[in-house]
User: Fold these one by one.
Assistant:
Number 1:
Amino acid sequence: MSKPRFLLSTLFVATLFCGPLWGQSSAFDRADVNDDARVDRDEFGRIIIDRFDCRDQNNDGAWSLPECRGPGRVTLDAADTNNDNTISRDELTDWGDRRFDSLDRNRDGHLGIQEYREWGLSDM
Ligand SMILES: [Ca+2]
Ligand SMILES: [Ca+2]
Ligand SMILES: [Ca+2]
């Protein structure tokens, strides 16, 4: 494989797993694993953990400050409950639970596309 093609393929795979390249409905479709047109708590949690694994570049099981760049800073402030300036997997899971509850405005235990759209990965 030529170098430009290799770089393009790498970019594609990284985007596929680490961030949205397509519109919100595609992001919603990817989150909605069982295709029931809504995102439940487990599906939401899976997205959160996928993001965690992608961002944990040194594989130490936590997000440190450099790994929380950009919008991730918002998550750091909200999720770092023990104030050690890193986010553990458990802290992120707990934050995801709270975030799910705040997004689920009609309290039906699912995120519809409108509710999910409000999130849009903007705080991770
Ligand atoms: Ca679903
Ligand atoms: Ca922490
Ligand atoms: Ca809902």
Number 2:
Amino acid sequence: MVPDNGRAPPCHLPHPRSRPAPVLRPFPAFGFRAPCLPPALRRPARRRPLPLFRSPLLPRSSFPGMAKLYFRFAAMNAGKSTALLQAAHNYEERGMRVALFTAAHDERSGRGVIGSRLGLSRGAATFGPETRFERAALPADIACLLIDEAQFLTPEQVGQLHRMAHVDGLPVLCYGLRGDFRGEAFPGSARLLTLADELEEMKTICACGRKASMNMRIDEQGRRVLHGEQVLIGGNDRYRAVCPSCFYADDGVDPARAPGLFG
Ligand SMILES: [Zn+2]
């Protein structure tokens, strides 16, 4: 339509030859692609993967699968308590709070005290066979649970700690002996070796230079004790960490007439 003045209106559309050429962007799979691809050829938007399984019974505030039950075991005098105190310090250095437990009947450093042979010591809550480990009974703001003398846990308590790690999302670090002076497992250690998500052997050496993995109980004359109660609290005066060769060295000798290995 021509206006009244007889002139054509100004055209604002650019001439086809004056349009800039389309920019070709690199596309990894196809080299270059045109700016506008039909929807069927476009790369689909990235989606977050869905969890394979989420129980409706688990609280959404927890992170199941993130926390673990750890068992760090060794023979005696390998530095387990020192490592526990170091782990607690590492958490607290980062502004996180921890809860410490030790066996109630282990009073070598005092009741409710975790002591290391290097001279460090620290107070801790105590557990006995009657203790029940539940998340609700612990402070809400702790980031980790550390347990010394974990060989004295009952198998049921280890089950509670395993549940606490995986249902409540609280990491649990247990430090303890694997076996007793007869070479038999403590019930709690056997359960820990079965359930723990991560096992770590802390190493120490025998007097002969080999790796010490056994605990030898000795009497006042330094002779090996073969029989007795599984639990007898004592330190360097009653126990030695030895290698298996030294553990069985005087097997054929009458203990009453055996020379003292550690006089
Ligand atoms: Zn040895």
Number 3:
Amino acid sequence: MSSRCTCCGRRLEWRPQNPRQRYCRRAICQNERRRRWRKAKLKADLDYRNDQRDSQRSWLEKHPNYWVDWRSRHPEYVERNRELQKARDRVKAELAAVTRTGAVLAKNDACPDKSDEISVVYELLPAKAAELAKRLLVGLWPGHLVAPGPCRPRSP
Ligand SMILES: [Zn+2]
């Protein structure tokens, strides 16, 4: 067993009352220990998760203006969240356009017609919406979209 704190790495004082101690007594390390315990408990224990949810709902019913007040005290958060939501809405709209029309998104000038210079012509194939969504959300295509589907040489 390690004699170092799992959180900060400092040497632990061995205590016979708690031979399996993994965190030192510093407040920051104890807070981290509690945070990790709670996270694991929420993941593993459905009853605990439901109790926490009910408790939070009950508290919020008693303090209905909590989030309104919080947002008025944190305008920078509100603005950041608004910008992120606009970005999410743009991705959603682009996906809806692809799904609705079956169209392939492509930059108009991505492949200008220069037939005499091109030895192979590629054909765009429709991408699966889920794959497209994944790529858009992880930012593989920032800005304009180019060739969202796989390409293959077009048969003559
Ligand atoms: Zn520590």
